[in-house]
Design a protein that fits this description.
- The protein starts with a helix and ends in an 8-residue tail after the last helix.
- About 75% of the residues lie in helices and about 0% in strands.
- The protein folds into two domains: about 1-60; about 60-185, no CATH class.
- The chain contains seven helices and no strands.
C-alpha cells in the first residue's frame, strides 16, 4: 500500500501547492519560467503511475460489502460524471450554471467507484480523491470568493460535449473490459 499512499500524497501536494503556498509557487515559476508547468506535469504523471501500480499491487482487504444495486446506479451516473468533468473545459453554454464542474465530476466519479468497491485500497484511493476534490473547491472559493460565471458557450458546444462524453464513456467501458472488469456487473 506504500506506493498507493505515496502516489496519493504526491497527487494531493502537487494539486494544492498553488493554493496553500502561492508565494512558493510564484517563486518557482519565476525561476523556471514556463518549465515549471513541465515540472508539475511530471510530478502528476509520476503520482498517477504510483497510484496505479500501488492500487494494482494492493492486497484485497474487504472493508464493506458494496450494495448489489450500486453497479446500476454507477451505470446511470457515470455518463453525467464524465460530462461534468469535460464541462469545465468545454464551450458549452451549460458551463455558466456551475462553479468547478471538473472537480464535481471528479468527485462524482470517485464516489461512484467507492460505491461499488469495498476493499481497503479502493476506500483509500477513492476516498482520498473525494476529500482532495472537495478541499480543492473550498481552497479555490476561499482564495477567489466571487465567482464570475462563464459568459460564452453555445448549443453547438453542448452537443460537442455530449458527443465527446459518449465517446469517452465507450472508451472507458472498453478499458474496464480490457482490465478484466465488467462495469455493468453482469
Amino acid at each position: 500500500m506504500g506506493l498507493l499512499i505515496g502516489g496519493l500524497v504526491l497527487w494531493v501536494v502537487a494539486h494544492v501547492f498553488k493554493r496553500v503556498a502561492p508565494d512558493a509557487r510564484a517563486s518557482l515559476t519565476d525561476r523556471l519560467g514556463t518549465a515549471s508547468k513541465g515540472v508539475f506535469a511530471a510530478v502528476l504523471l509520476l503520482s498517477v503511475v504510483l497510484i496505479v501500480m500501488g492500487y494494482r499491487a494492493a492486497p484485497f482487504i474487504p472493508v464493506y460489502t458494496p450494495p448489489a444495486w450500486g453497479v446500476h446506479l454507477v451505470d446511470l451516473l457515470m455518463f453525467p460524471a464524465i460530462a461534468l468533468f469535460g464541462l469545465g473545459s468545454s464551450k458549452s453554454s451549460l458551463r455558466r450554471h456551475m462553479r468547478h464542474p471538473q472537480l464535481w465530476g471528479f468527485t462524482l466519479w470517485s464516489a461512484l467507484h467507492l460505491l461499488v468497491n469495498g476493499d481497503l485500497a479502493s476506500v483509500i484511493m477513492w476516498g482520498t480523491f473525494i476529500v482532495w476534490a472537495l478541499a480543492e473547491m473550498r481552497l479555490i472559493n476561499m482564495r477567489e470568493p466571487y465567482w464570475q460565471p462563464y459568459e460564452g458557450g453555445s448549443t453547438k458546444g453542448t452537443i460537442r460535449l455530449a458527443v465527446i462524453t459518449a465517446v469517452l464513456y465507450v472508451i472507458i467501458t472498453a478499458i474496464h473490459y480490457w482490465l478484466g472488469v465488467n462495469p455493468f456487473g453482469a
